[in-house]
Structure formats: C-alpha cells, structure tokens
Amino acid sequence: MDDEASSTLRDTLTAFLTESHFQRLIRYLGLKSTDDKLLMNLWTLHSVPAAAYNSGQIYLEPDSPNPDDHLQKTTYYILQIPTPRTSPALTTYEGRPIRSEDDVVFSTDDPQTMPLPSAFLFGIHARFCNSLRQLRIQNQVKRGWPEKSTWNVALNIPRAILHKTSLSIRPVWLYFPKIVRLTAYQILLYLGFKLYGRPLAWVQRVPFGLYIKHGPGKFVPGGEGPALTLVEQHTNISAPRLFEVLTNADHTYLVMTRVPGIPLEAASPFMSYPERAQLGVELRSLVSQLRSIPNPNTASICSASGGPVFDYRFPGNPKTAGPFESEEDFNKHLITQERLRSSTHDQTHRIYFSHADLNPNNILVSGGKLSGVVDFGLAGFYPEYWEYTKAVYTHFGPDTYWLDILSDIFSGSYQEQLEAERKIWEVTPPW
C-alpha cells in the first residue's frame, strides 16, 4: 500500500474508513501467527450463506462492541439482511428461516488458541456491504437473466410436463381414501423440508411441482381454496392450481401447484426501466382479469366462498369479518372512531374480486417478465379501491419502485380513498 500504484486505493480506503481504521485493517491483514496451532479470524459457513455474506447480502453488527472481543469466550451479534433482499431465503441447518435482526452467537472453549473472529473485521465488512451488493447486481445484469440460459430453457420442458401431469391426475387422486391422501401429504412435507428447507413455517415446497400450505386457523384461510378455483375457472392468470383442501381435526392441508419464478422483491434490483414499465402493463392486465370474475355468492363483500373475509388490515382480533351485505356495513366495521370517517366513505364503489395482498413478495418474475402471482389467502370481493390501497399498505422502505408500478397499474386513481385509509391505518395495527 506504500507504493505509488496503490496510492489511489489507499486514499479511497482512508476516506471511506478513516485513517485509524485503515491502519488497523492493514495490521490485521499483515498479521501472521507464529503458532501453527493458533486459528485466528476463521468463520466457516455453508456455501449458500457464505455466498450471501461475500456478496454483501447479509452482515453482522456487534451487539456491544468490545476492542478485546476476540479474547472473550462468547460474543453476540445481530444479523442484518439489507432490503430489497436479492438472495434466496436462508435457513439454518435445521431448516428454520433466518431473518433480519436474528441473534448470532460465537463461542469458544479456548480464546488463546482458538480466538473468536474480530468484531472490527465484521464491522469493516458491514461498511462495504452495500458496495458488494451493487457489484453483484452489476455483474448479474451484465450476464443477463439466468432463466434465459439454454440450460434453464431446456429445464422448462420437464417442468411443464410435470405441471400438466399433476393436473391430469387431480380428479383421480381425490378418489383415494382420505387417510392415504393425508399420509401422502405428510410424507411430502417431510421430503420437501429435507430437499428445500423451510423458509416459512406454514408453506412448504414439496416434490412433484407442488406446494403445501398447512396449519390451523389463520395459516390456511377458508377462502383461499375457493379463490384459486375461481381464478382457474374465469382467467388465464398464472397462479397456483388447487389440488385439494384436506382438513383433519384442526389441521388443514391446502395442496397446490408451483408457479415458476422468483419474487419481485428479489428481482427488482436487476430489472431495467423498460422491464419495470412492461411489468406494470402485465399487472394491469392481471388486475383487469381478476375484476372480471363474477361473484357467485349472495353477500356483496365476502370471501370467494361467500363466508367471512380475512385480512391483517382489519381492526381487532381475530382478523376475520363479514360477510357484508353492503359497502356501508363494511365501512362500519373499518371505522372504529367517528373522527376517522372521510367523505369517501359516503361514496358507493363497485365491488370486484381482489387478490387483496399484491406486494413484491407475492408477484413472481422470470427473465424480467411477470410469471405469476401467489398467496390468495386474503382474496375476496371488495370495493374497487381495496386492491390499490392494500398494495400500498404493505409497502415500506425508501425504494419507491413498487409505488411507481402501482401508479401505472391503477392510472393514478384512488388517491382520495388512499388518504382516507391512511387515517385509519394510524390507529389500526396489523397484529
């Protein structure tokens, strides 16, 4: 670092880290152990989290920085996952999902011969985290979408065959005894956990191109199965196809086909502006098709099956309400205080079938294009503005690309309704 060729890099690092931190980093990098039995600053990881760490998609923050941390027997860190997340969901070796703000504990029996990794070095990595993420994004954009590679295009053929095969055996499968089907689903859940991990406790990818949502109560809303059926019957939207909803005692298994693609949340940093604009066009068509689905029920605002609607947006607990005979009855449930009433609540809106949970995690993208939409657990028949305001409700963070896409989808409509909803959101927590 003392030669003339390295002077520019030195000046840049000094400005980024400060002179004292730069000098300390140089000392660490030049440190050599004179004892072959001494292991220093060694942290072994599985290949998936190692790749995420190396590319700045995760980093560690010391819980309480200590200059002599490496001499302690135990140190504590907080795992951070920057947003938007651009890596696959991470799990522990037990299959438990790893989330931002999780605790990470390092321990050693002998700090003298096996000292813990330095918190200083973890801090240096955290400083470079955003730059590492941007470098990864830049490199992937140069390579192009992996879904368009010859290998992935070839894989789409057996995937399509498997999808059609699964749907073709669906009517026959339902004639098998319930105990046989139940046992098969439990075996598939076990195999899926071993093969794919379990990023979500209640949704499991399993073999044969299927997903199983399972659990009691709110984990499998009663209207989700009927919603998938309506979408299949009345649209050509790429969405999960319902295989079966099987209930055993208080546990429900919703079995459905897998939709290809990755969440928009992970894909958005790699998408060009024309691709984002085209996505808005494709989502506008999707919403239009959803709105064309007729209501086969007598209630006006209800789930796809005509029963209560389920939504974390609703006040109180449980988060189910209705069915409602009119929008006026629906508003009475939403407005918990008279001061929250707005003029828009006196208006009459058209009632449409709505996904009611459009967000970048439920919209799937493949090769920069819309490949499908998932998670119809909150779907039902709602006032026309509900699809838009709920999509805004789930947005957080400084990146406004999703709000821009929503503006394209709904042509800037429903701003008055959004302001009325925001007043209610302030006093209606989603838990």
UniProtKB/TrEMBL annotation:
PANTHER family: AMINOGLYCOSIDE PHOSPHOTRANSFERASE DOMAIN-CONTAINING PROTEIN, AMINOGLYCOSIDE PHOSPHOTRANSFERASE-RELATED-RELATED
A family per Pfam: APH
Protein name: Aminoglycoside phosphotransferase domain-containing protein
Domain Aminoglycoside phosphotransferase: 237-394
Transmembrane segment boundaries: none
